[in-house]
Design brief:
- The chain is an alpha+beta fold and 135 residues long.
- It has one domain (6-77, 110-134).
- The protein is built from three helices and five strands; from the N terminus they run ααβββαββ.
- A five-stranded mixed β-sheet has the order 1-2-3-5-4.
- Strand 2 (43-54) and strand 3 (61-73) form a beta hairpin.
- It is elongated.
Length: 135
């Protein structure tokens, strides 16, 4: 197993989210892999936690990466968050991303969880699973 493709995968996911015109119409350029300091935008997208497990086959290193992309909003109701979550799902499910190292074998939507947090904040965490090979 190698965790070496985690950075290239995150970079490609981030770039793909930034290139989505539908997502841009919903959250502007408020897509982060690290939250900015100071006040946060009313609605934003954040790349979050990740778990990686070995998927090497003896000749090539590889891994399964499960990672979370979150939509967070102060907007009343879940509609805005669900629209953004839908755009993220459409953008990343079965995306054909080019990595700076290795290759993406495939990426799939796994699950989503919508929650209310304190202060009237709505949050949707989308989990994706990606298979990468380092060849």
């Amino acid at each position: 197993m190698s965790y070496a493709l985690s950075g290239p995968l995150q970079t490609a996911v981030f770039a793909e989210l930034q290139s989505s015109l539908v997502l841009e119409n919903l959250v502007a350029d408020n897509i982060f892999d690290a939250l900015p300091t100071g006040s946060l935008p009313q609605t934003y997208v954040a790349i979050g936690p990740e778990t990686a497990t070995d998927a090497g086959d003896g000749t090539n290193g590889g891994a399964w990466h499960e990672f979370v992309v979150s939509v967070v909003t102060e907007t009343a109701g879940f509609l805005t968050a669900k629209q953004a979550a839908g755009a993220i799902s459409d953008t990343l499910h079965e995306a054909d991303l080019t990595l700076s190292r290795g290759r993406l074998v495939g990426m799939w939507f796994r699950k989503a969880k919508a929650t209310r947090e304190t202060g009237g904040i709505r949050r949707i965490d989308l989990t994706f699973r990606a298979r990468v090979e380092d060849n």
